[in-house]
């Protein structure tokens, strides 16, 4: 009788509730992905652009479904036992990151419409939406199994998107490098997850945090190894040094909209996962991951900015490669508040969220202008931007504004304030040395951002005959114009009212 009762109790603990509204945003993106793939079978070549507009509509619907969840108080897939642990939580942190990744995917879709004529349209839109669904799932995941699954759902389509340009050797090489390095990082992360499970007997982050406090001494080394190895997979996604080596070649070899997608959505996935496992799952081992992340932050921002500085040595260098190295440097700044959370109970990882929101808007805007320039200059070299103001003044002004935001200079007020919040997080946590390293790197970054900005307003280079080259104007697709306008307007609005973003830096999102 007792055995039967125990069995009934155990079975009841496995019953999970499902809140369909809570999971609606990622489910909508995944559903539209399947619909687009099926529709591709019945749509002729002439009507392939309709698939892109369908993808845009699906992403807009997924974003709209975040509005009913704005209270941030819904959870689902919960165990019915005494712990009430849930695998999916739509709290304020999850909603902000979901808005970021779905908005980034939407802007990527706008950049891609009209630019997929030489690509398999059905597969392209399916892969983009599938990756966006995984990216939207990850910030709401509250157990290690769901985190790993969401990370792979976001990553696997991205491999195919990087190499989707058939017959392009550089694209295939970039996809292979991205795939192999990611597989190794995932394998290491899974080993770490297995160590954590072996020492705690659970995969839910809140329960892991409670049980790591009581790990027997003989398992302490195993737990520390599990914590360190679990962070590797997310460090790879954030492009933190020394896991950054895939970034430049991948961005240059991928279609330009996909490079923009990886630079923003890929980073959001990595940083949200890193925040979840460190702040919620492993607070007891802050002495392990805190110093490691602090060193990674210093190394990442230094490697990224120094490498970006080298790109300006010759204007024949690719502008996309410069943006790739710049994104590595920006990743270093994003790591600072997470590292600070290990040293101060008052440190808020909201500073990382605030900085990520600013970075997402202006970096996507910079890639949008790069996509515009690439229509007349496929090489997309830095020299191709000289005199852009003379031919496309609005695009030049927009790119100049985006670069000043990334540099943290007026009129890019939001970039300046975001950097100040990150700097303050390091100082308040007693990481003075990290604040000094960040200040030095900000100065280094000023050089290449300002050099690129100045080139936009110089007179076009003279040709061999002494005359300035003329640039033929091409009609800009409406979706591309919309993407540039949206990012520019959003960036200006945030600079005018930075409190809209910076309030995340002052509150605990969990």
Automatic annotation (TrEMBL):
In terms of InterPro entries, this protein maps to: NADH-Q_OxRdtase_suN/2, ND/Mrp_TM
Q: How does it sit in the membrane?
A: Multi-pass membrane protein
Extract the PANTHER family matched here: NADH DEHYDROGENASE (PTHR22773)
Highest taxon, organism lineage: Bacteria
User: How the protein assembles, per its UniProt entry?
Assistant: NDH-1 is composed of 14 different subunits. Subunits NuoA, H, J, K, L, M, N constitute the membrane sector of the complex.
What Enzyme Commission number(s) appear in the record?
7.1.1.-
What keyword terms does UniProt attach to this protein?
Answer: Cell membrane, Membrane, NAD, Quinone, Translocase, Transmembrane, Transmembrane helix, Transport
Q: What is this protein called?
A: NADH-quinone oxidoreductase subunit N
Per the record, the gene is nuoN
The catalysed reaction is: a quinone + NADH + 5 H(+)(in) = a quinol + NAD(+) + 4 H(+)(out)
Q: What does this protein do?
A: NDH-1 shuttles electrons from NADH, via FMN and iron-sulfur (Fe-S) centers, to quinones in the respiratory chain. The immediate electron acceptor for the enzyme in this species is believed to be a menaquinone. Couples the redox reaction to proton translocation (for every two electrons transferred, four hydrogen ions are translocated across the cytoplasmic membrane), and thus conserves the redox energy in a proton gradient.
Describe the family membership recorded for this protein in Swiss-Prot or TrEMBL.
Belongs to the complex I subunit 2 family.
NADH:quinone oxidoreductase/Mrp antiporter transmembrane domain residues:
141-444
Species for this entry: Streptomyces clavifer
The main enzyme category here is: translocase
User: Main site of residence?
Assistant: membrane
List membrane-spanning regions.
20-43, 50-72, 92-112, 124-141, 147-164, 176-197, 222-246, 258-282, 288-310, 322-343, 355-374, 394-418, 430-450
- Identify the Pfam families for this entry: Proton_antipo_M
> Is Transport there in the keyword field?
yes
Cellular localization per UniProt:
Cell membrane; Endomembrane system; Membrane
């Amino acid at each position: 009788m007792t055995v039967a009762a125990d069995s009934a109790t155990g079975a009841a603990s496995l019953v999970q509730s499902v809140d369909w509204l809570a999971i609606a945003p990622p489910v909508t993106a995944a559903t539209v992905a399947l619909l687009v793939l099926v529709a591709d079978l019945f749509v002729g070549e002439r009507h392939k652009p309709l698939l892109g507009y369908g993808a845009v509509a699906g992403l807009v619907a997924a974003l709209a479904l975040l509005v009913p969840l704005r209270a941030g108080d819904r959870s689902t897939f919960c165990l019915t036992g005494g712990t009430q642990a849930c695998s999916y939580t739509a709290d304020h942190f999850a909603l902000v990151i979901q808005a970021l990744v779905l908005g980034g995917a939407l802007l990527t879709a706008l950049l891609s419409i009209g630019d997929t004529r030489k690509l398999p349209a059905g597969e392209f839109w399916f892969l983009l939406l599938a990756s966006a669904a995984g990216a939207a799932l990850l910030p709401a995941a509250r157990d290690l199994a769901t985190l790993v699954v969401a990370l792979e759902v976001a990553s696997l389509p991205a491999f195919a998107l990087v190499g989707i340009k058939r017959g392009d050797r550089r694209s295939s090489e970039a996809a292979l490098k991205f795939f192999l390095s990611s597989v190794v990082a995932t394998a290491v992360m899974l080993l770490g997850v297995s160590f954590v499970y072996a020492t705690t007997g659970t995969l839910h982050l809140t329960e892991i945090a409670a049980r790591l406090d009581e790990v027997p001494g003989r398992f302490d080394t195993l737990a520390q190894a599990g914590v360190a190895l679990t962070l590797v997979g997310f460090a790879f996604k954030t492009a933190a040094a020394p896991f950054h080596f895939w970034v430049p070649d991948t961005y240059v070899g991928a279609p330009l909209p996909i490079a923009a997608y990886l630079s923003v959505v890929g980073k959001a996935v990595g940083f949200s996962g890193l925040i979840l496992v460190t702040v919620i799952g492993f607070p007891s081992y802050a002495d392990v991951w805190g110093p490691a992340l602090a060193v990674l932050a210093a190394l990442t921002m230094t490697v990224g900015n120094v490498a970006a500085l080298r790109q300006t040595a010759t204007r024949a260098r690719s502008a996309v490669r410069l943006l790739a190295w710049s994104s590595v440097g920006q990743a270093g700044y994003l790591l600072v508040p997470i590292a600070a959370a290990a040293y101060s109970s008052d440190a808020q990882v909201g500073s990382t969220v605030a900085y990520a929101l600013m970075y997402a808007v202006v970096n996507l805007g910079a890639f949008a202008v790069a996509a515009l320039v690439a229509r007349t200059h496929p090489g997309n070299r830095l020299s191709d931007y000289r005199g852009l103001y003379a031919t496309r003044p609005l695009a030049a002004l927009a790119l100049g504004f985006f670069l000043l935001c990334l540099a943290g200079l007026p009129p890019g007020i939001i970039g300046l304030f975001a950097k100040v919040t990150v700097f303050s997080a390091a100082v308040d946590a007693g990481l003075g040395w990290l604040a000094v390293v960040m200040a030095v790197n900000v100065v280094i970054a000023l050089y290449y951002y300002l050099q690129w900005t100045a080139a936009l307003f110089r007179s076009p280079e003279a040709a061999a005959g002494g005359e300035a080259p003329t640039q033929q104007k091409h009609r800009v697709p409406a979706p591309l114009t919309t993407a540039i306008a949206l990012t520019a307007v959003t960036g200006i609005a945030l600079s005018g009212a930075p409190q809209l973003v910076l309030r995340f830096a002052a509150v605990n999102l969990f």
